[in-house]
């Protein structure tokens, strides 16, 4: 797809906002980020919609999204992901968003690309026996659907998040740690926020 540099930048901004904040920027916010007028941004957005790169829901604010199957590369840092906070791998903790990023250019994760992937720093050792340790970075594919045995990021009814292995049982969900020092978490409902697709660990400095 033939995109101008500003059109590519708009796609990158929309992707990053949706991953970090869960919603798209407004036209004015895009204009402020790029340093152009709102009218100019509107023209670029309309061009991107005509090219099939963007989708917009009529009469709905913040509804811009990347069309399915459209890759959005970072030209200089192709494996850069938003680092959106910490995730409990011990007892659940509140997830605190931040605006940091992790650059994985030196690592090879060919499937961990695009708007649907984000990174979390692990805090705790409840997944130790599956090779996920406190301080590791997990790459998470954003999804609300999980199968038994998936390692998931789960939002619990009390508003905290945790990293565990997912099991749907008769009348509840079991979130299973991989460390005998921790008890399983059993809830009737939780919201799946993503499935772990990779783990990154740095040794030394």
Plain-language structure description:
The chain is α+β, with helices and mostly antiparallel strands and 205 residues long. It has two domains: 5-66, Arc Repressor Mutant, subunit A (Orthogonal Bundle), CATH 1.10.10; 81-200, Ribbon (Umud Fragment, subunit A). The chain is 19% helix and 29% strand. The chain has helices spanning 5-21, 27-34, 38-50, and strands at 54-55, 65-66, 80-88, 100-103, 117-123, 137-141, 151-155, 161-168, 173-176, 185-187, 191-200. The strands form two sheets. It has a nine-stranded mixed beta sheet with strand order 4-3-5-6-11-7-8-9-10, with helices on one face. It has a two-stranded antiparallel ribbon with strand order 1-2. The chain is elongated and about 60 Å long. The chain starts with a helix and ends in a 5-residue tail after the last strand. Residues 105-114 have low confidence and may be disordered.
Please provide a brief summary of the model.
This protein has 205 residues and is of the alpha+beta class. The protein has helices at 5-21, 27-34, 38-50; strands at residues 54-55, 65-66, 80-88, 100-103, 117-123, 137-141, 151-155, 161-168, 173-176, 185-187, 191-200.
The count of strands amounts to 11
Q: Give the uncertain stretches in residue-range form.
A: 105-114
Provide the β-strand percentage band. 25-35%
Q: Class of the largest domain, according to the CATH hierarchy? A: Mainly Beta
Q: What is the CATH homology-level superfamily of the largest domain?
A: Umud Fragment, subunit A
Number of domains: 2
The helix fraction, in percent, is 10-25%
Q: What is the mean pLDDT?
A: 82
CATH topology of the largest domain, anyone?
A: Umud Fragment, subunit A
Radius of gyration over C-alpha positions, nearest whole angstrom: 19 Å
Question: How would a textbook summarize the main sheet?
Answer: 9 strands, mixed
H-E order: HHHEEEEEEEEEEE
How many individual helices? 3
Structural class: alpha+beta
First and last CA, distance: 40 Å
Architecture of the largest domain, CATH level 2? Ribbon
Sequence of strands across the biggest β-sheet: 4-3-5-6-11-7-8-9-10
């Amino acid at each position: 797809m033939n995109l101008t540099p500003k059109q590519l930048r708009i796609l990158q901004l929309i992707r990053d906002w949706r991953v970090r904040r869960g919603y798209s920027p407004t036209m004015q916010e895009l204009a402020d980020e790029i340093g152009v007028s709102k009218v100019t941004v509107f023209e670029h957005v309309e061009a991107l919609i005509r090219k099939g790169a963007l989708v917009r829901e009529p009469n709905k604010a913040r509804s811009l999204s990347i069309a399915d199957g459209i890759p959005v590369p970072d030209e200089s840092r192709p494996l850069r992901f938003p680092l959106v906070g910490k995730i409990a791998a011990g007892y659940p903790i509140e997830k605190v968003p931040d605006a940091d990023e992790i650059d994985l250019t030196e690592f090879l994760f060919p499937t961990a690309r695009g708007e649907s992937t984000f990174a979390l720093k692990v805090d705790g050792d409840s997944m130790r026996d599956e090779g996920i340790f406190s301080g590791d970075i997990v790459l998470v594919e954003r999804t609300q659907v999980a199968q038994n045995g998936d390692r998931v990021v789960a939002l619990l009814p009390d508003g905290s998040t945790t990293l565990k292995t997912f099991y749907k049982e008769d009348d509840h969900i079991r979130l299973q740690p991989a460390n005998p020092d921790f008890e399983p978490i059993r809830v009737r409902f939780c919201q799946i926020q993503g499935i772990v697709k990779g783990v990154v660990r740095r040794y030394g400095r």
